[in-house]
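G., the chain you wanted modeled:
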Amino acid sequence: MDHRTLDHIATLISAAQDKARAFMSAIAQSNRLPSGWYVSIISGLRTYAEQEILYQQGRTTPGPIVTNAPAGYSNHNFGTAFDLGIFNADGQYIDDLPDRGIMTQAQVSFYYRSLAPIGKALGLTWGGDWESIDDEPHYELNLWPGLSETECLAKLRDLHDHGEPIELK
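Predicted structure as tokens:
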């Protein structure tokens, strides 16, 4: 795993770290990407301030909307989520290639979708399955599978707001 990936994994809670490492190992052992391509974890824990900046993008600041989650409503804020980046053999981030006419968005999506079964088999929730926004690079660990996403986030916010650790017990 590259240093960027290791740095982002280190920001996650221990249970999410374990899942992220297992996911990256499984991806490396799979044949789902062309030869020479690689995956890096490009985002892990975000502060509320960092999340709010992303949330305002496309709303009050320039750029496309990249999240529907304001601060406190993203699993990134609690160290239970991470985003992948896929890079081709030349080290180019494939998400940038449609704008340059090198790949189509459908091709980019194909590669992210090819990794989803690996993450889902490890018990991760995949952002490509969401209806509110298509977030194919996003994976998160639901600490309380019996609770809805809304209930989990409320519990995470409560733990965060009371300074309590967010970990599986």
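The radius of gyration is 16 Å.

Shout if anything looks off.
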